[in-house]
Design goal:
single chain; 758 residues; alpha+beta; 17-stranded mixed β-sheet; two-stranded antiparallel sheet; 17 helices; 27% helix; globular; disordered C terminus
């Protein structure tokens, strides 16, 4: 078949499964779009402010998707009288101007996880619509696998709609990991001490503890409605975190605002999802977003033309994870064309026919566009890879107990191969992997323990773990260079051989595994909490960034789990052949380079805002070169800083995770009172930092003041003496950790944890 210059690259048999380029070109959801303006956000504060500003500027429509969305979340102006930055206030004002709002949420199985979707829908539906309109659709995932029986009704409890997007007038789209939900608003300071004026009621959030005090009269008043505008949502069991003795959980996340042609693909994803569910199953009463409706509200007046180059400098591809079932559901919508096809402005029937045939050929398989782009980016890496991710569950073989791993995605393998290629080429290379200490939730819960266990196996301890395989390749390289025959060992045997050869720590030249943590104090109490890594970020060579909603696990990446969305961003401007350290010169690009440096400045404590009782604002740590991260001095300085910070936390606190804890939940014993686990108080410190049964705040904070920034070394041997592999809940090996409020112990007093510390 002959192809003209407009359609040649769209032929169904055009594939690029193994290439040295970044984008998914094999079975993409959307094609790379040119000329986008992209702004990256490394704090929930800046992201939510940008979303608020976009909502205030909306002219025609606002589309929102979320895994969790809380109607009373404050996007900006926190602490202001009347709380004008609440989402309900912003949307009500927009509708009064004539803006039409459509919200699409995951319909959670509340016995497994409560994402407040029913309350959110009720509150949004109660708002006065003015000249605009409001509709909220709740959707069950349609993955077609993992279905279990609850009573006599089928329920796909293990998978969800996990996309987090905001689309305003079709020309501006926000994509990333940040839900407009409780706890996500945070700044560069990562405060653990709660300010009730900033983190109101439910927004004072920590999934690792139990809410410790009842509401005050003033807080009760905040829940009152004013006309059709709701107040703050009533907390579960009338309880909130006790700011006097309980830490909030700081939140690390990444998102991007896209202005330009790629925003169209985020818009089209919303319409595809909405219309493919409308009128069927549990959504039989929900109407479609029709062309007539869209034309009537004036949507085409603001909708961007994705086939024209925009005014920005970024090439962006929007990628998805979606099930074959969803692709089949969407196929009829693609066939009908209309305003969701990228040639909507100047229809091209020849081009459209080619795309339809391609999609028809692809619907028998799950869409794995995000995973494929991640693999392409890893394979393209020449110098380094920086990853922040909520999970790290990838194929790593069996664990220490000879239990086969639950995942089959190949991210660990691809990272290992990237390092192997560098080792064999005598080329410097490094992977920075930043993870939460564990998924949020109680370590006593199966879901939390299982996910934490397999992250440790994938990083260090599994049969084919990242670090174990790198150690093996270093041994192979040594024997090859010396002209000796290659040793043959079982996987675990290479650790002992590495020690004999003096290579047991050589992997540190290639991999650094990190967590984030902060501390703070109130009157009489010192507290700490991990910074929860919720980001889904990959930066390769400071040249390309992937920002989205997909975790590193099968559930997010293999298409047959959660629906996900991500942006692959390559900046056409600011490209420069850059010396990144150790004699390696590679092409870096402005967006990815600036984003990585901004994230590092944040984590080094260089961007701390205002006053804090925790980590203070400081300059660039000695030895770190932000522009040349691959320098040996930079790698070493970051590692030693993280090791030193972890050592101080372990010295002052008794309960924080560490290598010496044989079980994952060992630190929790320090929360026990009267023989029972009680998560409503701050546990005692190490005896050296106690005085008369109370925290010696002055001595403890003097020691903690030595901490530099937020990076801490991940304790890779933590839990290594567990008697058996922590089982996944109900056999759901890729289930996202539970997010429900832990059950409060009986007879909790309003002053618990204030005076009694031992």
């Amino acid at each position: 078949m002959p192809y003209d210059r407009y359609t040649a690259l769209l032929a169904p048999d055009t594939v690029a499964a193994v290439t040295n380029q970044y984008f998914d070109l094999e079975k993409p959801y959307a094609f790379p779009r040119y000329g986008n303006e992209c702004a990256g956000y490394v704090t929930g504060k800046d992201y939510m402010k940008a979303v608020a500003d976009a909502i205030r500027a909306a002219k025609k429509f606002i589309f929102i998707t979320g895994w969790q969305l809380d109607s009373d979340v404050e996007l900006d102006q926190r602490g202001a009288a009347g709380h004008p930055g609440r989402l309900t206030e912003l949307l009500a004002d927009a509708m009064a101007r004539g803006v039409h709002v459509r919200v699409m949420l995951y319909d959670a199985i509340n016995m497994a996880v409560d994402t407040h979707e029913e309350v959110t829908r009720t509150r949004f539906d109660s708002l006065a619509t003015g000249k605009g309109s409001m509709k909220v659709m709740l959707q069950n995932a349609n993955t077609g696998r993992g279905v279990v029986k609850w009573g006599s009704k089928d329920s796909n409890a293990y998978f969800s709609h996990h996309q987090k997007t905001v689309i305003v007038d079709g020309a501006v789209a926000f994509v990333g990991g940040i839900d407009l939900a409780y706890g996500r608003w945070d700044d560069n300071t990562f405060d653990v001490v709660i300010d009730p004026a900033i983190h109101v009621l439910n927004d004072a959030y920590n999934g690792q503890v139990t809410r410790g005090r009842r509401m005050t009269q003033a807080e009760t008043k905040l829940t009152e409605w004013v006309g059709k505008r709701p107040g703050f949502m009533w907390p579960a069991k009338d309880r909130v975190l006790d700011e006097r003795c309980q830490p909030r959980q700081p939140w690390q996340d990444i998102a991007v605002r896209i202005k330009g042609p790629a925003a169209f693909d985020v818009f089209a994803n919303f319409v595809l999802r909405w219309n493919s569910f409308a009128g069927v199953g549990t959504n039989w009463m929900d109407g479609a977003l029709t062309k007539n409706w869209f034309d009537k509200l004036g949507g085409p007046d603001t909708l961007v033309d994705p086939l024209l180059k925009g005014a920005g400098s970024n090439t962006v591809q929007i990628c998805r994870s979606a099930s074959s079932t969803q692709l089949k559901d969407e196929l009829g919508i693609w066939r009908n064309g209309s305003y969701i096809t990228d040639d909507w402005k100047k229809p091209n029937s020849k081009r459209r026919d080619i795309l339809i045939k391609a999609r028809e050929a692809w619907v028998g398989e799950h869409q794995t566009s995000i995973r494929d782009a991640m693999i392409n980016c890893i394979r393209s890496a020449q110098g380094y890879i920086y990853i922040e991710n909520q999970f790290f569950v990838s194929d790593c073989g069996a664990d220490e107990k000879l239990t086969n791993g639950p995942a089959n995605n190949q991210i660990v393998h691809e990272l290992t191969e990237a390092v192997r290629r560098a080792i064999n080429a005598n080329r410097a290379f490094h992977v920075w992997l930043v993870l939460p200490e564990h998924p949020e939730g109680l370590l006593e819960d199966e879901a939390t323990a299982s996910q934490a266990w397999w992250a440790l196996q994938g990083a260090r301890r599994g049969q084919h773990a990242l670090i174990r395989n790198i150690t093996m390749y270093l041994i192979f390289k040594k024997y090859k260079d010396e002209g000796k025959p290659m040793p043959v060992r079982q996987a675990w045997g290479y650790d002992a051989l590495a020690k004999e050869l003096g290579l047991e720590n050589k992997w540190r030249d290639y991999v650094t595994v990190l967590n984030l943590r902060n501390f703070g104090h109130t009157n009489g109490l010192v507290m700490t909490e991990m910074v929860y890594i919720h980001s889904k970020l990959m930066i390769v060579d400071d040249a390309v960034a992937i920002i989205g909603s997909a975790n590193i696990n099968d559930r997010s990446l293999n298409g047959n789990g959660d629906t996900e969305l991500a942006a692959v961003i390559v900046d056409d401007s600011g490209a420069a052949m850059t010396d990144v350290g150790q004699g390696l010169r590679i092409v870096t690009r402005k967006f990815a380079r600036d984003l990585r440096i901004k994230v590092w400045k944040k984590h080094f404590g260089m961007s701390v805002e205002g006053t804090s009782t925790g980590v203070k604002k400081q300059g660039l740590p000695a030895g770190i070169n932000l522009e040349r991260p691959l320098e040996k001095a930079s790698i070493k300085a970051l590692r030693e800083l993280a090791i030193g910070n972890r050592r101080i936390y372990d010295q002052v606190f008794l309960h924080t995770p560490r290598d010496s804890f044989g079980t994952l939940a060992e630190g929790r014993r320090h929360y026990k009172r009267n023989g029972k686990l009680d998560l409503t108080w701050t546990p005692p410190l190490d005896p050296d930092y106690m005085s008369g049964g109370k925290h010696n705040v002055a001595k403890a904070t003097a020691e903690l003041a030595k901490i530099k920034g937020f990076f801490v070394e991940m304790p890779l041997q933590w839990g290594s003496k567990e008697l058996k592999t922590p089982p996944p809940p109900l056999g759901a090996s890729t289930m996202i950790a539970r997010n429900e409020e832990p059950t409060a112990p009986p007879e909790v007093s309003d002053t618990i944890g204030i005076t009694e510390q031992v």
